[in-house]
Amino acid sequence: MALKSYRPLTPVLRYKTTIDYASQLTADEPYKPLCLHKKSTGGRNSHGHMTVRHRGGGQKKYIRTIDFKRSKRDIPGTVETIEYDPNRTCFIALVKYLDGERRYILATVNMKPGQKVMAADMCEVAEGNCMPMVNIPSNTLVHNVELKLGRGGQMARSAGAYAEIVARENNMVQLRLPSGEIRNVREGCVATIGQVSNMEHMNVVLGSAGRVRWMGRRPHVRGIAMNPVDHPMGGGEAKSKGGNHPMSPWAQKAKGLKTRTKKKLSSKYIVSRRTK
After folding, report:
1. Shortest CA distance to 204 belongs to which of 37, 9, 11, 21?
2. Is residue 268 part of a domain?
3. Looking at the domain assignment, is residue 256 inside a domain?
4. Which of 20, 57, 115, 146 is surrounded by the most beta carbons within 10 Å?
5. DSSP-derived pairing of the beta strands 116-117 and 17-19
6. First-to-last C-alpha distance (Å) of the chain
């Protein structure tokens, strides 16, 4: 899949790139019975106070209900369409099962309409099929990985993401994540075979401020451009941090500070931390 570039008729078009959706997607409209209305908060909580900055506006979106649990077991399904989802970076696939029910799942790199998929305790090792990792061979790429039995996929769900099964030990499966981290997951947890679609997402250049606003992101003012009363890094006669380490408006250090809780329960499942 290639990116689309544009003739530089304006300064914006010189750098702007987009995904070539026409070569990937097979439907223009979502399947409405699986859509929900999404209410925009604008970064405000139930009291109307701003709790998340730089959010607001943007295009209205429907929430597509995605089947992360793949709970439709032992019933074959057929991929009907590959669709765009504004709420995530990857594409989604509409699957029609043998009993007539339709569900959305995450689309894999090579998924096409007409492809057969299934979720079962034991099935063919093919893209889009879902089964417990105890039955998936080593060195297989998987995504939508469960961390707790029955909770549904939580890991490796964004565009181009995958995890690789590298070893098995003590009822655990070791997964190598894209970051380089190796992590233990219970072998009974399910995962879907294949790599998530839309690998070129990371190479897209937005190119214009307006395109960022369509995504619901408002302008971000640098702390160094503010006054001392507004930000710890504000003030000074020129571009000066005032002798301070880069930090947030509330003096939380922004570079190098480890934010992971040392006593986090899931730390015992990490075999080796990600590589630098």
Report:
1. 21
2. no
3. no
4. 146
5. unpaired
6. 29
* Beta carbons of 196 and 162 less than 8 angstroms apart: yes
| Strand partners for 106 | 92
Q: Tell me the pTM.
A: 0.90
According to DSSP, the β-strands at 182-186 and 172-176 are antiparallel
| Cα gap 194→126, rounded to integer Å | 8
CA distance 94 to 29: 12
Strands 35-37 and 270-272: unpaired
Q: Where are the beta strands (DSSP E) in 84-140?
A: 92-97, 102-106, 116-117, 130-132
Position 185, amino acid: V
Task: For residue 21, give both structure tokens.
Answer: 């959706």
**CA nearest neighbour of 119 among 154, 80, 73:** 73
In tens digits, the chain (276 residues) has pLDDT values of: 589 999 999 999 999 999 999 999 999 999 999 999 999 999 999 999 999 999 999 999 999 999 999 999 999 999 999 999 999 999 999 999 999 999 999 999 999 999 999 999 999 999 999 999 999 999 999 999 999 999 999 999 999 999 999 999 889 999 999 889 999 999 999 999 999 999 999 999 999 999 999 999 999 999 999 999 999 999 888 888 778 889 999 999 999 898 889 899 989 999 998 865
The domain spanning residue 66 has which CATH number?
Answer: 2.30.30.30
Task: Evaluate whether residue 116 is within a structural domain.
Answer: yes
Burial category of 140 from C-beta neighbours within 10 Å (exposed 0-12, middle 13-18, buried 19 and up)? middle
Query: Which residue is it, tokens 């679609």?
Result: 197
Domain count, the chain: 1
Give the domain extent around 140.
3-41+59-202
